[in-house]
# Entry
Amino acid sequence: MISWRKFWRRLGIVLNLRDPPNLPHYGWSYFDHLIAVYVTLDASDPRANAVITKSSERPDDLTWGDVFLLENIVFSLQPPEVVNRNTWIIRERFREIACPSVYEKYTSSNPPTETDTPAKLAMLKADLTRILDVLHWHYSLIPMRERMRRSLTKRCILSVVVYTILLGAFLLFVCHRHRFEFAAMLACVIYWGILGGFVSSQRRMETIPNDGDPLISVFGLDSADYYLWLSPLLGATFATVLLFMFIGGILTGTVFPAFYAPQAGKEVLSNFWFAWETVPTTAVEYGKLFLWAFLAGFAERLVPDSLDRLASKLSPSDKAPTARSTAIDSKTPQQSGEGVSEATTKISPETLQNVMHTGETPIGSEKKEDNKP
# Structure
């Protein structure tokens, strides 16, 4: 038989016309078990009766706090022999939910175990009541933490889908239609950097500890949405910087992508020609480029550490010239009537080769290609 009361309540929740119940379905199962235990005690408590009345008259308003209040009342009404038998069960629940260091400190505090006198029984009940408080604190915050984690994951997946659609259905189509090879390559590099940033943000959320105080993990997840836009932004930026490090020959070797060399007579390229000619040589080089772009977003310290090593390896002779020499050298060959001075400071090939300690071919030893293969 259809319960029209439940039907209209659920319909209102689906249509967002009323707030969902505070207690999930598994919370009601736990609450029903506590009521059964309370009835078997053959004792009465006005606070427990008020909670039971509330669950009947206003079920949507029942909270975890009401459930935990009923459990504490039930525990306080239990006879000594039942309390004694429930001691190990409650402490085992605490051991499973607490981190090892916390439980070790608890056991080293010599918790009470005897119930042969009223004073010892009172001490044992106080100890177990405090454990129940900690358990209730975890039970109420763990579902909240998992909902926040699930919400952040859904937002991350939705963002990846949006970026993929924009890249595949719009940007790459336009670039292919107008033969903008460099723009298509740059868009793919940015996309893989963003994707690496999203994966990095998800791994960062997974590293938020699940043990210990659950409120700390809730605080961490509450501020984790900050990384949903920061990590992809940094990933796109670092992937672009890494691309120009490859194009500039700062990073070379078999593990790094190779690009087309300028055509003969066009060593001094305009921006337009640069955007048309600078692309990887083969499909294998494209794969290397996109892999490094993903790593630039995934390992956020990859590009900054490479730039730091490059800056730290600048010898004193590689420093910028003085203000006077800069003013003299700033003249163009047409203004001074002379060629570019051979004393212009340059970064040594050895410095460039050792930036990431992975280059295999010395800078300048590659043979430039005159035409695309």
In short: The chain has 16 helices and no strands.
